[in-house]
Amino acid sequence: MSDKKPDMVVFNEDENRYDAALKPYATGVGEPKIEMTNITPWKQASINSFNKKANAKFAELQEAYNDLVETMEYNALVLKAKFSFQPIIGKHYHLYKNKNEESFLSLVAPNECNWDHLGSFRLNSENIWERI
């Protein structure tokens, strides 16, 4: 007698066992049809959700970058100015332009003088100039 099994029997000869229940597809004529679930809407929703989060994060990073560039420009502007004193952390200073178009830093407030006022700044605890 032959060891060959009929076609309708699902027998795994490599593992020497019946494994119809383990197959990802129908193995008999009377079994229900296995249909693929349409996951396209789920994928599309995931893509849209990720894109929204990525765009929001990108906008945050772009805003942080622009703030950093602005801080660097203000620091460069103040540090290029002339001043003959050591600024104190936390104090307010005012940046002016003199008649020779040279910038200088002063403690004198804009309402106390008639110089060309460029901006007011404060030196923070990290020695970074902040515009006020």
Textual characterization of the structure:
The protein has 132 residues and is of the alpha+beta class. The chain has one domain. It is built from one helix and six strands; from the N terminus they run ββαββββ. It has one helix at 40-80; strands at residues 11-12, 17-18, 92-97, 103-106, 116-123, 129-131. The strands form two sheets. The protein has a four-stranded antiparallel sheet with strand order 4-3-5-6, covered by helices on one side. Strand 5 and strand 6 form a beta hairpin. The radius of gyration is 37 Å and the shape is rod-shaped. 5% of the residues are buried. The mean pLDDT is 89.
Structural class: alpha+beta
Beta-strand portion reads: 15-25%
The Rg value, from CA coordinates, equals: 37 Å
Structural domain tally: 1
What's the SSE pattern? EEHEEEE
Mean pLDDT: 89
Task: Describe the largest sheet.
Answer: 4 strands, antiparallel
What is the overall number of helices?
A: 1
Q: Order of strands in the sheet with the most strands?
A: 4-3-5-6
The residue fraction in helices comes out at 25-40%
Instruction: Give the N-to-C terminal Cα separation.
Output: 98 Å
Shape: rod-shaped
What is the number of strand segments? 6
pLDDT < 50 runs, ≥5 residues: none
